[in-house]
Amino acid sequence: MTMTIGREILGRLAQGRSSVQKSYYPKPGEVESQWLLVDAQDENLGRLATRIARALLGKDKPQFTPGVDVGDFVVVVNAGKITVTGNRLDDKFYYRHSGYPGGLKRISLRDQLNRFPDRVIRAAVRGMLPHNRYGRKLMKKLKVYAGPDHPHEAQQPRPLA
User: Fold this and answer.
1) Is residue 12 predicted with pLDDT exceeding 80?
2) C-alpha dist (Å) from residue 75 to 18, 114, 131, 151
3) What's the sign of the alpha-carbon dihedral 18, 19, 23, 29?
4) Three-state SS for 63?
5) Taking residues 69-81, what's their average pLDDT?
6) Rg (CA), the chain
7) Any idea what the Cα angle at residue 112 is, between residues 37 and 149, rounded to 5°?
8) What sign results for the dihedral spanned by CA atoms 140, 142, 144, 149?
9) Cβ-count burial 134-161 (b if 16+ within 10 Å, e if not)
10) Would you give the DSSP letter of residue 153?
11) Dmax (CA) of the chain
12) By mean pLDDT, which of 17-21, 24-28, 56-60, 147-151 is the weakest?
């Protein structure tokens, strides 16, 4: 019985008719990137970062393919007005090192929000993206602004659902 099934498949392949489905791989010209606008005012940091990361990756699009840039550009406004739960404002720290002995610097989330609110959202989203050149490419599609104004009105961004 298996011999007849094998012969049938070989016969179809020889005639140019295949019963095997081809997988879809989106080409760079086939995918349209949209511009999305996110208002971060009174949004929880982690939940907001997951929504942004999904939009950058294009996970909600039907042509999503891992490792292929099918995501959208994301513009975040009011980054300085995000919220966090618990004591995280004083307990969470961001670290950086100068490369010299004793060059470890740390800054709390509260101070980081006061000085550079865009870096807080960038760091949260970066942790949810792949840590390779694909992730670095996606980070370039993220635009974060501390206030309500942004220079991307010409792209007519629509709100992220």
Assistant:
1) no
2) 45, 20, 21, 10
3) positive
4) coil
5) 96
6) 23
7) 30
8) positive
9) ebeebeebbbbbbeeeeeeeebebeebe
10) G
11) 74
12) 17-21
- Let me know: does 112 contact 95? Beta carbons within 8 Å: no
Give the total residue count for the chain. Answer: 161
Of 17-21, 105-109, 134-138, the range with the lowest mean pLDDT is: 17-21
CA atoms of 66 and 58, how far apart (whole Å): 9
Tokens 């513009």 — which residue? 75
First to last CA, the chain: 54
Say if residue 13's pLDDT is above 80: no
Task: Report which residue type is found at 117.
Answer: P
Instruction: For 32-159, give the CATH class.
Output: alpha beta
Cα angle 81-146-47, degrees, rounded to a multiple of 5 = 50
Place of tokens 């294009």: 58
pLDDT at 147: 94
The answer, as to whether pTM is greater than 0.70, is: yes
Q: Are 64 and 57 in contact (CB under 8 A)?
A: yes
Show the tokens assigned to 35.
Answer: 């511009």
Q: Which pairing describes strands 142-144 and 93-97: parallel, antiparallel, or unpaired?
A: unpaired
Do 70 and 58 contact (CB within 8 A), yes or no? yes
Angle ∠(103,142,57) on CA atoms, nearest 5: 110
